[in-house]
Amino acid sequence: MQRPFCWRIGSPNLSRVRNLARDRGSNGGGQRTEAERERAREERERRRAQRGAKSPSPPPLPLPSEPALPTDVSHASEQAASEQASTQVEQPHEQTEPTEPILEPAEPIHELAEPIHELAEPIHEPAEPTHEPAEPTHEPAEPTHVQAEPANVQVESPHMHTEPPHAHADPASASQRKPADLPRPDRRPASPTYVPIAAPSAKRTRGIGKRIAILLAAVVLIGALVFAVVLISHHSARQKIPPIPKIVKIVIPEGFTRAQIAVLSHQDGLSGSYLLPSKRSSEIDLEHYGAPASTPSLEGFLFPATYEMYVGAQASQLVSEQLAAFDENFGGSEIRRALVLGITPYQLLTVASIIEREAAIPHDRRLVAAVIYNRLRLNMTLGIDSTLRYALHNFTTPLTEAELHSNSPYNTRIHRGLPPTPISNPGAAAIQAAAHPAHVSYLYYVAGADGCGEQVFSTSYAQFEKNAAAYREAIEKNGGRVPACKKG
């Protein structure tokens, strides 16, 4: 009867292993009893339990060239080996017997069975059906790839149908080979060693997440508090926006003196002194106009006009505005006309200031200018009372005999030539009249008796006396007052 034999699953070599149980088993001392097999099984389970208690290691991945052996096949192989060794029962197989019988000497096979079984014993242990990962080891993985080959046992896996190769072992050569020289099945490459990395537990992760959330909430709360404090402090420290100041129009009439403008600016709500900034200013060069270095003030340069100022603005700002307006109305053409007339620009400005005080109507401006220039050419005194009134600050009441004979440099009754300074601040019309006088020979003028403001001009002193007598008679008839104008 043909001896039972088995083919090693997955091995490309043709090697049959003798039934180890029939040749006194792996120990060479007889068959193992049921109790011994039970003890061996318990020992294997104990070792697996010890390895499982250690850190798990992921199982090696199966190679794509050779599919992993199912666990039920491993179970079947181990069980078949155990039962064959104890009962020596022949296992049915469907493999095709070789054509020629194979004669295998007992002794060489017996000698080889022992080392093969010794190598196979540690391999049956990982073949047990367990899902626990194997203990990580740094030892060479060579023994883990050698599988047991029970003699005359054929295991047929329901999932794998491996066709055994038909090859015969050479008994002569097998008897002389050492266990290390025996042909071994192809080994799989050594599986990579996996070092288990302890993953953070879910509880620890949740704790870290909670601490991060609390920290972020604290940062947001502190930022909100700081922003609120800054906002409150900024709101409390912010000054109230003052109301927009009102704008006032300051109307300076032509012919007003510097003292009169100072009173007007104070009445219109300007702050500060007007007389101090209107005395000297770096914004204008008086010597450029021929004014002497001893000129006491800016009288004559404070151009009369309507100025818009904020209520409470400084009076010095008004002075700056007036000087800028004068520069626009008294320029190169007026300076050239002064040179043609044989006077300085500053003297032309003084003539214009006298015209502004003497001429009540526009028609008389150029005539008054002609009288002034005619008398200056004849070296006559001007005899104009408005110059003395400027020095006396009396512009309304009649002058007394003592005032008329005062020794003031502004008394043009006794002093020849022009007064030392302008006596008012002339406008553009008076400046043009002074620059372009009328071509007449008048030497005298006096106010008209009708009270309409016109001047009556004459070339002789006798005619002047008659016109002056008529004016005095009209005042006497009107009770000492200038009669009212009756012209429509």
Give an account of the 3D structure:
The strands form 2 sheets. This protein has a two-stranded antiparallel ribbon with strand order 1-2. It has a two-stranded antiparallel ribbon with strand order 3-4. The longest helix is centred in the middle third of the chain and has 36 residues, at 202-237. Helix 9 (345-358) crosses helix 10, helix 9 packs across helix 13 and helix 10 (365-377) crosses helix 13 (428-435). It has 488 residues and is mainly alpha-helical. The chain has 2 domains: 34-181, no CATH class; 248-442, no CATH class. It has helices at 34-53, 71-87, 106-124, 171-176, 202-237, 258-267, 315-329, 332-341, 345-358, 365-377, 385-392, 401-404, 428-435, 461-477; strands at 247-251, 306-310, 444-447, 455-458. The chain is rod-shaped. Strand 3 and strand 4 (455-458) form a beta hairpin. The model is unreliable at 1-7, 10-30, 64-76, 85-169 and 171-175 (pLDDT under 50).
